[in-house]
Design a protein that fits this description.
Elements (H helix, E strand, L loop, with lengths): L1 H39 L5 H11 L6 H10 L5 H12 L9 H5 L7 H9 L1 H8 L3 E4 L6 E4 L5 H10 L5 H9 L1 H4 L17 H11 L6 H9 L6 H11 L6 H10 L5 H13 L6 H8 L6 H10 L8 H10 L2 H14 L1
């Protein structure tokens, strides 16, 4: 039994030695491969450099490999730069020292590189959003502030919002609130005039989140005449929760007479929220329109009880003749208010 135990232990030790040797060989092979790729990046042949970048991407968790990939972001060949960028951002593991160089790729002359970079800005934000705690000098707590970005990065990000490619602009708008505090307050205003409708819609949605400025109010009023119904409806839908402001009420009143019934409906909902309309005939005209989106109709019906007794005949009419989607809701409101 003792001999068997000694033999078994010797076998285990030998097996561990073989595994350790194999691991050492793998490490040496990996190191040699990375070193060869780094040498290949000095080649005059762009295909050789491109192949080196593709191989380095498999080892990007190695500081040496990731550093080489960052260097390759400055390569004279767009294909090499693009592959280096993809290697760095293709998963959530982005080396910390690569974040700023990646963001700078927003200014690359190659549109595909700018598209890749702008779509990766969400990941970049997660990596640079390091909150800094500033203690209260008088004691008792403090506050968190965002880590400021270098000026050259802010400039690059700002320019990307005005990129001549619609995909880049769209990607940047979706990340607007992640960088808002470090960007000029009016950076999205020009995008309200963008020729791309999707960008206009995103700009409206993001701009309304902040406090309205005179410039913004002027731009929004201009959008009431936009040729695209989706833009006018998004405008009414978004500003209806700002209807307590006089200028916003003016915009909602304009949209109340829009040629598209759903735009009228969204505007009406906004005016009802703040009790800024008492024209029952106009309300009836909109709510009884069979083309009105049922969801908008449900919103309107939910706000009608705020008009108290004045809305009772209309609620009764909706319960009897309105769309099936909100008849029961109207009847319930009528019974509760009567």
């Amino acid at each position: 039994l003792i001999l068997f135990f000694l033999f078994f232990r010797s076998y285990i030790n030998a097996e561990n030695l073989i595994i350790n040797l194999q691991k050492q060989e793998e490490i040496e092979n990996k190191s040699e491969t990375i070193q060869k790729c780094i040498r290949d990046l000095e080649s005059d042949n762009p295909d050789t450099r491109h192949s080196a970048v593709l191989l380095l991407g498999k080892y990007k968790k190695s500081p040496l490999a990731s550093s080489a990939l960052v260097t390759a972001l400055k390569d004279s060949n767009a294909n090499v730069r693009r592959s280096a960028l993809v290697s760095l951002v293709e998963d959530m593991f982005v080396p910390q020292d690569a974040v700023f160089p990646i963001i700078r790729m927003l200014s690359d002359e190659d549109v595909h590189i700018r598209r890749i970079t702008s779509s990766a800005m969400k990941t970049m934000n997660l990596l640079i959003s390091r909150n800094i705690f500033i203690p209260n000098p008088n004691g008792g707590g403090g506050r968190f502030v965002s880590q400021p970005l270098p000026k050259d990065l802010i400039d690059v990000i700002e320019i990307a919002f005005a990129d001549n490619d619609a995909v880049v602009r769209k990607n940047m708008i979706t990340q607007y609130y992640n960088f808002k505090d470090q960007l000029p307050p009016d950076i999205l205003l020009p995008l309200l005039d963008d020729k791309d409708t999707e960008i206009k819609l995103l700009a409206i949605e993001n701009l309304i989140r902040g406090a309205p400025t005179d410039q913004l109010r002027e731009k929004l009023e201009k959008l009431t005449g936009d040729e695209d119904t989706r833009v006018r409806q998004k405008l009414a839908q978004t500003i209806k929760f700002l209807g307590n402001e006089a200028k916003m009420q003016t915009i909602l009143y304009k949209l109340l007479s829009d040629s598209a019934i759903n735009v009228c409906g969204e505007a009406l909902a906004g005016l009802l929220i703040y009790r800024k309309i008492d024209d029952i005939n106009k309300i009836r005209e909109i709510i009884m329109n069979p083309e009105l989106d049922p969801e908008i109709g449900c919103q309107i019906v939910s706000f009608l009880p705020m008009m108290e007794k004045k809305a009772l005949p209309l609620l009764k009419q909706i319960a009897e003749e309105g769309q099936s989607s909100f008849r029961a809701q109207a009847l319930n409101s009528y019974l509760q208010s009567n």
